[in-house]
């Protein structure tokens, strides 16, 4: 009975270790993807602001 409890605890510990490492990897991957996407967005916005500055359209009312 003692070894069944120890084995169950060992399997639960290994499962938590595997799940924790997968979640940690996914959080890091999402962080880097968001960081790269944010940099690309800011670069595109800056480029549009610089290039499109002379083409202003006005609505006549």
Element string (H = helix, E = strand): H
Q: Please give the largest β-sheet.
A: none
Oligomer: single chain
Contiguous low-pLDDT stretches (5 residues minimum) are none
Q: How many DSSP H or I helices? A: 1
Based on DSSP secondary structure assignment, what is the total number of beta strands?
0
**Helix proportion:** over 70%
Strand content: under 5%
Q: Termini separation (Å)? A: 86 Å
Name the average pLDDT: 90
Keywords: Membrane, Transmembrane, Transmembrane helix
Transmembrane segments: 30-50
Task: Write the topology of this structure.
Elements: H1 2-51
In short:
By secondary structure, the protein is mainly α.
Describe this structure in words.
Helices cover 82% and strands 0% of the residues. It is mostly helical and 61 residues long. It has a domain at 19-47. It is rod-shaped. The mean pLDDT is 90.
Q: Can you give keywords for this protein?
A:
61 residues; mainly alpha; 82% helix; 0% strand; transmembrane helix; transmembrane; membrane
